[in-house]
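Q: A small favour: would you put together sequence and structure tokens for a protein?
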Amino acid sequence: MIEFRSVTKQYPDGTRAVEDFSLVIPSRKTTVFVGSSGCGKTTILRMINRMVDPSSGSIQIDGKDIGGLEPVALRRSIGYVMQNSGLLPHRKVVDNIATVPLLKGVKKREARLQALELMDTVGLDRAFADRYPSQLSGGQQQRVGVARGLAVDPNILLMDEPFGAVDPLVRSDLQEELIRLQRDLDKTVVFVTHDIDEAFYLGDQVVILKKGGHIAQVGSPAEILADPADDFVADFIGANRGKRALHIEETATGSILVDDDGRPAGTLTGSVPAAGGRAQP
């Protein structure tokens, strides 16, 4: 479990990126921070591995204040995946994945074998092991980045807009891959995005942020969609427009779901659930 307690981050120029932020991030779930640029979501993420230190307040991981931990050791125990993968261009794929284990003293042969196994885990053919990052597609590079983030088998995986720079089809594939990985590996994932659809698709817990890291609403996607906290949240998630505002329309061939713009959005495939229940097929 990760817990923020009244955390503030103020930079030397007086800018408060995050102000009095408190939140519990549950273990073995995916928590997604979502908000527009400048809301503090990346700063919050980077405080977890002390790439950024808070100006005040405290952050605890499993009850231990990380302010007393050595920053480099902490970073090497937490997986980190960033936008554009951040791979070392002069190192082959297998060596990029093995970077942190080697720094932690794992023997080169063992680290490379583990790296090959991680390529299997993230769905990347071992034939790419001896290629350089520039020889891979954007989606393949991101898979390498995820494998590198998992290389020390961390309990916590931080992901800073990792799929933001790839095309929509590749992004969809990577999202599916992350869901599969989380189901198989059971990590505590903290994910940052500006895309509310991605947040709702991936998150067990979604945290919608306003400027300064102020929490507008926190909850499951279903809870937020069913009951937006205020007009800001309703507008941010598009609760009353487009594909969020669906209604049933009867056609000559049956009932379909239509969005607020009149575009067909899908069909109903099960019975309407009772309050608090799930639809049965």
